[in-house]
Write a structure and sequence with these properties.
By secondary structure, the protein is α/β, with parallel strands linked by helices. Bound molecules: flavin mononucleotide.
Length: 175
């Protein structure tokens, strides 16, 4: 199974969580996993739509990885979806190119899981902030997987704090 990890962190140089996770993934040298760093490829947000679509055509599983910014994904990932999921390609008439593919999502969040439970009765979980993924992935004929979430990134900001999340992260990407 071919997997594309669409990484969308605006500042990997200062990242602790995503940097540690992605470095652990790189070390594994998985043949069937492509790490696709959007901010590195498109610092000016000028996305090569055809190249992105071709990459997705060859993937069975597409995983978004983003830190949570304002209860959402980072802006380049949103623009990437706006640009790449074109009418007539991803949805609408003849828009079947992503049908049957699996879509995963990996989040790192500054807050703890408990913070999310307690904060907002109308949005009782971080997952519920990302409910838009349900109709989005449904519209493009994909299968949305449960997320892999690493919480508490603002409480504990040392590499050692990320290490326990690595096995689950690697499993999520490769299973
Ligand atoms: C602009 C901005 C907005 C953020 N918004 C949220 C948020 O809504 N919820 C949350 O849990 N953390 C939020 N955070 C914290 C980040 O999610 C956290 O720092 C990041 O996941 C840590 O990963 P990293 O070490 O790879 O940067 C925000 C951080 C920034 C810079």
């Amino acid at each position: 199974m071919k997997t594309v990890l669409v990484l969308a962190h605006p500042n990997m140089k200062e990242s602790i969580y995503n940097k540690t996770l992605v470095e652990a993934l790189e070390k594994q040298n998985y043949k069937n996993v492509i790490i696709h760093d959007l901010y590195k490829l498109y610092p000016d947000f000028n996305i090569d739509i055809k190249a992105e679509q071709n990459l997705l055509l060859n993937a069975d599983k597409i995983i978004f990885e983003t830190p949570v910014y304002w209860y959402n994904m980072t802006p380049l990932l949103k623009k990437w979806m706006d640009d790449v999921f074109e009418h007539g390609w991803a949805y609408g008439h003849n828009g079947t190119k992503l049908h049957g593919k699996k879509f995963g999502w990996i989040l790192t969040a500054g807050a703890s899981e408990q913070d999310y439970k307690e904060a907002q009765p109308q949005l009782p979980s971080l997952e519920s902030c990302f409910n838009f993924l349900i109709p989005t992935i449904d519209l493009i004929g994909g299968k949305l997987l449960d997320p892999y979430i690493v919480y508490g990134a603002e409480y504990n900001r040392e590499v050692k704090d990320v290490l326990p999340s690595i096995p689950g992260y690697l499993d999520y990407i490769t299973k």
